[in-house]
Write a structure and sequence with these properties.
Number of domains: 2
Order of helices and strands: HEHEEHEEHEE
Strand order of the largest sheet: 2-4-5-7-6
Distance between the termini: 58 Å
Structural class: alpha+beta
Strand content: 15-25%
CATH topology of the largest domain: Heat Shock Protein 90
CATH superfamily of the largest domain: Histidine kinase-like ATPase, C-terminal domain
Shape: globular
Number of helices: 4
CATH architecture of the largest domain: 2-Layer Sandwich
CATH class of the largest domain: Alpha Beta
Length: 195
Amino acid sequence: MNAEQQNTLEHVKDASEQLLSLIGDLLEMTSLKRETLATTITDFDPRDPIREAINASKGRRLHVALEVSQPEIVPTMSSDVRTVTKTLKALIDNAFKFTREGQVCITLSIAGERVKYAVKDTGVGIAAEMHEVIFDEFRQVDGSRTRAFNGSGLGLALARRLARLVRGNITVESTPGVGSTFTLELPLRHDPNLA
């Protein structure tokens, strides 16, 4: 294959992967809405989902820092590790997408019976009036056809629904031109029987 054919093949491959990812997200969103997505609760090190999410992310071109408060004392977490990992991956992918230069820093803190994962970036930031809108399905800060960042607008909506599946939530703090911090807060021990 010559260089042009190789380049074309790469574009086709990337487009196919994006389409497959979008279909997977839509199917998962449908299952979450119908409340048919099951959880499997296991015990695990709360640092494991971070490592898995970073490894699965496509944005490794930037520096990623992982900080753990009190690293010598990391209790076991009881939750659905797949759901926690997928939620973190969505937040990390979002941070990479909107951070062309700088870094993404992931922190883990545990206080009492709560676990907090914070994904902080030095990206474009988000205006205050958009902080809740970005969690709506198919919504983006810039919804125009000429927007600088592509995407379906499903990533953060899916992430928040996944967080709530395991009794957690995602919040955001952001300043335009400075960056954003998305915080995923979860119970240290998830009880699927609680309403």
